[in-house]
Amino acid sequence: MSDPVVHLTFDEELLFFLPPRRRRSRLSVAYDGSASLGHLIQSAGVPLPEVGDLDAGGVAVGPEYRPTPGEGVGVVAVSRPKRLAEGTGFLLDVHLGRLARRMRLLGLDTWYDPGLDDDALVDLALKQNLTLLTKDRGLLRRRVLRDSSAYVRGDHVEQQLHDVLDRFCPELSPFSRCLRCNGVLRPVSKAEVAPILRPGTARSYDDFARCQSCGRVYWGGAHATRLAAVVATARQQLSAG
User: Fold this and answer.
1) CA-to-CA distance for 130 and 111, rounded, in angstroms?
2) Rounded distance between C-alpha atoms, residue 169 and residue 165, angstroms
3) 171: how many CB neighbours lie within 10 A of its CB?
4) If you count Cβ atoms within 10 Å of the first and of the last residue's Cβ in the chain, which end, N or C, has fewer?
5) pTM over 0.85
């Protein structure tokens, strides 16, 4: 007599989470009769924050559901976009430093500290009501983060930014945050920052902004065209959606 199993049918979007040798839409997983559906899904390799609806024989169920042996369950990817409550910020793990700068460029409240370990990230996300973005699937399996974390797809920063915008469709406020510390920028007069400007900068530019947190000064320098292109691409993506 064969051991009891539960048959999970995954959306194609979720297949890359599965180990290569088990990467197929319908997967039969061993079942002891007591584990929750959420536990079975995560043991197969798919983090629950990436899962949306669950369907057991045409009935909507939750991750806490305990299936019967031999039952089939459809596992749907989380719906997009998932709009966050106004004022919700993002917390990025150590692997996403370049993405953090891009998100700050777009005016998104983006917390990033490469010195934080996993426990510190979880603690900060919960205390500050931040959505944790990560490449670490282990972090996504922490139950306390199930509704406030997301896996970032893509190996390159352009792909990662596209994925974040596609998933959350956030309101943009470009050039309003410090790329270094995430502080809010405010316009300042040229006279106010003149003492720290190089002569060439003072001659060439008249519009400046300063970070209210770290004091860094910004102006439309040599990278302005490239940064404006990033902003334009992001706006085009969101408007197309």
Assistant:
1) 8
2) 5
3) 12
4) N
5) yes
